[in-house]
Amino acid sequence: MTFKRILMGACAAAALSAPMLVASAPASAESVLRVVMHSSLRVLDPIMTTAYMSRNHGYMIYDTLLAMDEKQVVKPQMAESWKVSDDGLTYTFTLRDGLMWHDGTPVTAEDCIASIKRWGQRDGMGQKLMQFTKEMTALDAKSFTLVLKEPYGLVLESLGKPSSNTPFMVPKKLAETPPSEPMPEQIGSGPFKWVKEGFQPGLKAVYAKNTDYKPRSEAPSWASGGKVVKVDKVEWVTMPDHMTAANALINGEIDFVENPPTDLLPIYEADSNLEMRITNKLGSQVMMRPNHLHPPFNNPKVLEALSYAVSQKDVMVGMVGDNPKYYQTCTSYFICGTTYGTQAGSEGKMVGDIATAKKMLAASGYDGTKVVIMHPTDVATLSSHPPIVAQAMRQAGFNVELQAMDWQTLVGRRAKQDPVDAGGWNMFITTWVGADLINPVANLGINGSGKKGGWFGWYENAEMEKLRDSFARETDPAKQKAIVEQISKLGWSTIPNLPLGQFFAVSVFPKSLKGVLDGPAPYFWNIEKTKG
After folding, report:
1. Is 267 among the domain residues?
2. 473: enclosing H helix or E strand
């Protein structure tokens, strides 16, 4: 079945006319990059959710004040420059010339202040930064100050955060939307513009080159530097069937597959015209997230039993096969191989010790309460884990029910704090790119704020928050590492979440596609379609 017929069938099923979806498919002078992402796009507001499809959408149409390069050094992006006062309390940011919103109005300092405040209500690093911030004040249309209550060592790292929630800049009128509600319009200042009439939820999202965008002069590196767009449009096309996507790529009907399942990689490897690349060199962590509000995971002893029941290796092999090129077992909350990649406190855990897990569960007082695990079936990097985890839990004595759904349904449902019998949940499994987890302030999974600002699952621990604050204040690297050791041990005794291993996802595209960038997110500037 050809790509066009697939799209026409999808449109008919959605009661849409085929010409609407495939109008751009015939060859023309227009250069169109067609991409199959890991999931469909549904939530358009990248501050409302940490879902990576929303973050990816954000990178298309928005820009950031600062950005992090491949060496994890923060660089100016929308900012032309910044300076810090001698006492370390006042940061002054100046915007570069020529920044315009997609509606033709100029970007102002007031817009940036409002954007930072909205992001700071939602994001873990943003919340911590706002706790240390006394005030933000516009000096003129192009410059503003951020004044701290006391010295804080992660100001630039927070504003240059490369992944969810990324502090994208939006017009003030949109930034004043409560972060729990979606912004009513898609107006950014980034390298692409949102094509509203091309959006068909579950089928396709369309972005057009922003011809008014003025890129920086530096070479691109991760999300920093010059974002030079070399195609006229980018279309994200939804193909839930991975074999269909493989055939479409091989036949030249699409140009890029973000994260194909590992069992299909031999098919891609057999085609000498294709390049397979691990673009996210830090890799990603699979994270099992329990709901701490309701039984049985409001009981720390039950959580400890869980930490012995599940085997990281079983989960990783089930996901990517027994190929060490694509995974590693790692019980660090902060990504093995990085500055803070300690595994302290995890000894003996996550190896599938069913006998120990049974004993601990029996001693915990667990009464057979049903554990509802949400199981996304439409995302290759998420669908294999829940059945493996569920089987291990059943062997240990848990009463487990897997509930199948698509990822976007899970993303909506995980925000519910209701008990299971009222539509809530007990557990889901997700993945985080390494850049989201590399320090205790960035890592949402160990945020101990509970309902007051914690991530879904609502882990609450006052001691953890004190340690995270101490890390944020500390400037001595050795002392920071000592604090991270304490955090790791506390984490493994209270189980905010369980790391299920690290994996390295492959993206596939024709060798004729030039300029594909590495990074924690997929970037579609700098890419050029050339003839093979």
Report:
1. no
2. helix 462-473
Mean pLDDT of 196-204: 96
Q: Domain boundary at 175, 190, 216, which? A: 175
| Rounded Cα–Cα distance for residues 319 and 326 (Å) | 10
pTM, full prediction: 0.88
Mind listing the pLDDT tens digit for each residue in 462-510? Answer: 999 999 999 998 888 999 999 999 999 999 999 999 999 999 999 999 9
What are the tokens at 250?
Answer: 């091989």
Q: Residue 211 carries which DSSP code?
A: T
Written as six digits, the tokens of 31 are 């250069």
**pLDDT interval class at 19 (50, 70, 90):** very low
Q: What is the 3-state secondary structure (H, E, C) of 45-110?
A: CCCCCCCHHHHHHHHHHCEECEEECCCCCEEECCEEEEEECCCCCEEEEEECCCCECCCCCECCHH
Residues 182 and 174: beta-carbon distance below 8 Å: no
Residue span of the structural domain in which 139 resides: 63-175
Residue 87 resides in a domain: yes
With 0-12 CB in 10 A as exposed, 13-18 as middle and 19+ as buried, what is 286?
A: buried
Which tokens go with 174?
């949109």
Give domain status of residue 233, yes or no: no
Residue 11 has what pLDDT?
38
pLDDT at 24: 42
What's the number of domains the chain is made of? 2
Q: Which residue has the tokens 């050791």?
A: 485
Instruction: Note whether residue 6 is domain-resident.
Output: no
Does the N-terminal peptide bond of residue 296 adopt cis geometry, omega within 30 degrees of 0? yes
327 and 475 belong to one structural domain = yes
